[in-house]
Amino acid sequence: MPPRPALSKSELEVAKAIWRLGSASVGQIFEALSAEREIDYTTVQTYIRRLESKGYLKVKRIGRNKIYSPKVRPGQVIKETVDDLVDRVFDGEVIPLVRHLIQDRTVNAEQLGELRRLIQDLEAESDDASAE
């Protein structure tokens, strides 16, 4: 399957609202978004159509209403978005991204501990694989 087109910032915002709701009509999605920021109903409709055409949403007609639900899980969208970012900005290299995040973002002691545990787990997996 060819990769889905990337989401714009606003499309991602609408997708997140739909993930939170599970499934919803345009009106319900609009209500959820307008509680967070000022947005027009027709703008929400436009983003929903884009998300559907890009393959991120599925639609079911119930009576006269269209009910939209996620076609792609949030984790998959995060993976695709980060992979795209790493490829475009960091030429496919992970370490420059990690370095950027650690140096330019605030990383507290708890997060550093979690990072250490992740590295230890990866090293253990690597040792297990090489022992086989």
Shape: elongated
Number of β-strand runs: 2
Distance between the termini: 34 Å
Tally of separate helices:
6
Q: What is the overall pLDDT average?
A: 92
Helix content range: 55-70%
Read across the widest sheet, the strand sequence of neighbours is 1-2
Low-confidence stretches: none
Q: Give the radius of gyration.
A: 19 Å
**Biggest pleated-sheet summary:** 2 strands, antiparallel
Describe this structure in words.
It is a single chain. This protein is mainly α and 132 residues long. Helix content is 65%, strand content 9%. The chain is built from 6 helices and 2 strands; from the N terminus they run αααββααα. The protein has a two-stranded antiparallel ribbon with strand order 1-2. A hairpin with a 2-residue loop joins strand 1 and strand 2. Helix 2 packs across helix 3. It is elongated, with a radius of gyration of 19 Å. The two termini are 34 Å apart.
Give the arrangement of secondary structure elements.
Elements lengths: L8 H13 L4 H9 L6 H13 L3 E6 L2 E6 L3 H17 L3 H11 L4 H23 L1
Antiparallel strand pairs: 1-2
